[in-house]
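Hi V.,

Quick status before I head out on leave. The structure for the redesign project is tokenized and pasted below; the design run finished overnight.
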């Protein structure tokens, strides 16, 4: 553009000078001289000479100015080349620095190209620069639901180069294992192409986050059933106190009894089964919470009573079909609807009242079912038989008349006869199948059955009246029995009676490890140990009742 202006300037000057020269010289000739060829020639030569001088001076001035400008441009070009070389060298050095960084790091440009990654990044993720040549390629390694937010994070930082960003980012490594980073990013300048460059440093917090998540999970979950716990329940209901939801309280029937009979391990199995069945019939977004012991709460988006009743019915039916250790499982339920106007305290009270009403109606029936299951188990897993109990009851009838027992005493004795060895269900079945006398360890195990039986009887209301008699039915009047070594009348009356009846029936029926005796031999043994094992007066009355019978 400058050269073009110079040409026009010289041409314009030459045109103006030529026109003025012709006009002035022609006017002088007309006024002072006569026109002649010589004069015209001289005038032309003078014009050419003066024009040449003027053009020379003008071109020389322009040439000098141009050389000066060219020298300046050359100098600037050298400086620019040196700057580019320096910038390129610095970029190479920084790329090497990023590559050697002992932490996961990457250098990338605003055109989304990843320029370099550290060896620590490759070691941790399994990816090389060829695997993630661009930010878009990196984003594909991020969980799909977080990809857009991650791309927006980089774009926002490039658009606001003065800020420094931090973001927690999840990334699948080459083995498809989830990694979690705290990513710190900042614009560090421009590259030789004029593009902004960003340096991102990643701190691996996977273990910390996993531990934190696990700790958070443990603080709000029950470790046995993997359901939410009371802490979560309290927080959730407080946060949703102005919202509507369906609410169900559930309580396993006879859990304490099952714990007492079969042990807490079996009780834990029942709790896990119960939670599994509830999850099976409640919507996925429902919250199942174990409030403590055998009580659970269900919070669901369903707010129709008919649908809630259907859930409860399905759970009940499945529980009855899911029998554990020969016991029919059942649960009691109570429900209420939480509306935005009702307080949760009102809703909980309504559901709790319905639960305990349901439980009261089921309790007696459930206990009867449990007792039947226990008796069935006792006959299957011990040496106890229906024939033995029938024989005992038959032997007891004439003795009851002989002793003129009160109706309550008769009822308790007959109940004691039926269930006195109920604790044997917790004794190893192998012991009862031995056709020999028991060894010391086996005998010690068998002698625990009165204590087992006592716990079972105490857990069932209909057996409580004979619980202590069950515990003491192997005590001897001289104090040589077990488990306490009680003497004489310290032993319950019906327990002393059962001690005689049971010994006589066992002797006259025989066992795998003991030969059968005649009635006379059995009576002789009873008399022999009267006053030591057996109550002497009761032995006499028993023998008398046998004679009358």
């Amino acid at each position: 553009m400058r050269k073009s202006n110079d040409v026009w300037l010289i041409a314009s000057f030459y045109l103006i000078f030529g026109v003025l020269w012709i006009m002035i010289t022609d006017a002088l000739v007309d006024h002072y001289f006569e026109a002649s060829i010589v004069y015209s020639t001289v005038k032309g030569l003078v014009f050419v000479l003066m024009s040449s001088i003027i053009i020379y001076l003008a071109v020389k001035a322009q040439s000098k100015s141009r050389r000066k400008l060219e020298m300046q441009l050359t100098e600037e070009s050298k400086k620019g080349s040196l700057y580019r070389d320096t910038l390129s060298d610095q970029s190479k050095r920084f790329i090497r620095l990023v590559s050697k960084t002992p932490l996961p790091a990457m250098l990338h440009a605003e055109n989304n190209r990843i320029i370099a990654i550290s060896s620590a990044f490759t070691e941790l993720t399994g990816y090389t620069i060829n695997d993630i040549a661009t930010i878009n390629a990196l984003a594909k390694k991020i969980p799909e639901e977080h990809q857009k937010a991650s791309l927006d994070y980089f774009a926002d930082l490039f658009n606001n180069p003065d800020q420094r960003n931090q973001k927690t980012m999840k990334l699948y490594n080459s083995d498809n294992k989830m990694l979690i980073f705290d990513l710190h990013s900042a614009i560090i300048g421009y590259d030789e192409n004029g593009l902004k460059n960003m340096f991102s440093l990643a701190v691996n917090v996977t273990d910390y986050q996993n531990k934190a998540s696990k700790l958070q999970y443990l603080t709000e979950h029950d470790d046995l059933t993997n359901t939410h716990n009371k802490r979560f329940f309290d927080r959730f209901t407080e946060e949703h106190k102005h919202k509507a939801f369906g609410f169900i309280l559930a309580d396993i029937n006879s859990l304490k009894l099952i714990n007492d009979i079969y042990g807490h391990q079996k009780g834990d199995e029942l709790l896990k089964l119960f939670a599994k069945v509830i999850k099976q019939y409640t919507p996925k977004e429902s919250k199942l919470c174990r409030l403590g012991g055998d009580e659970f709460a269900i919070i669901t988006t369903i707010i129709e009573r008919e649908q809630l009743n259907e859930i409860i019915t399905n759970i009940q039916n499945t529980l009855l079909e899911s029998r554990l250790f020969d016991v029919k499982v059942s649960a009691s339920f109570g429900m209420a609807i939480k509306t935005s106007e009702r307080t949760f305290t009102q809703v909980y009270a309504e559901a709790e009242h319905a639960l305990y009403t349901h439980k009261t109606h089921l309790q007696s029936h459930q206990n009867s079912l449990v007792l039947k299951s226990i008796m069935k188990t006792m006959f299957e897993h011990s040496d106890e038989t229906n024939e033995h109990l029938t024989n005992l009851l038959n032997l007891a009838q004439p003795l009851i008349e002989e002793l003129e027992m009160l109706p309550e005493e008769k009822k308790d004795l007959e109940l004691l006869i039926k269930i006195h060895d109920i604790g044997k269900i917790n004794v190893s079945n192998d012991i009862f199948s031995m056709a020999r006398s028991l060894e010391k360890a086996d005998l010690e195990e068998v002698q625990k059955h009165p204590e087992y039986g006592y716990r079972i009887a105490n857990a069932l209301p209909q057996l409580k009246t004979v619980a202590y008699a069950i515990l003491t039915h192997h005590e001897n009047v001289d104090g040589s029995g077990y488990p306490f070594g009680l003497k004489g009348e310290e032993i319950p009356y019906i327990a002393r009676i059962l001690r005689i009846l049971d010994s006589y029936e066992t002797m006259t029926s025989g066992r795998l490890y003991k030969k059968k005796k005649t009635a006379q031999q059995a009576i002789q043994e009873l008399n022999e140990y009267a006053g030591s094992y057996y109550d002497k007066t009761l032995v006499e009355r028993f023998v008398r009742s046998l004679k009358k019978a």
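Above is the designed sequence. The longest helix spans residues 37-100.

G. will cover questions while I'm gone.

Best,
W.
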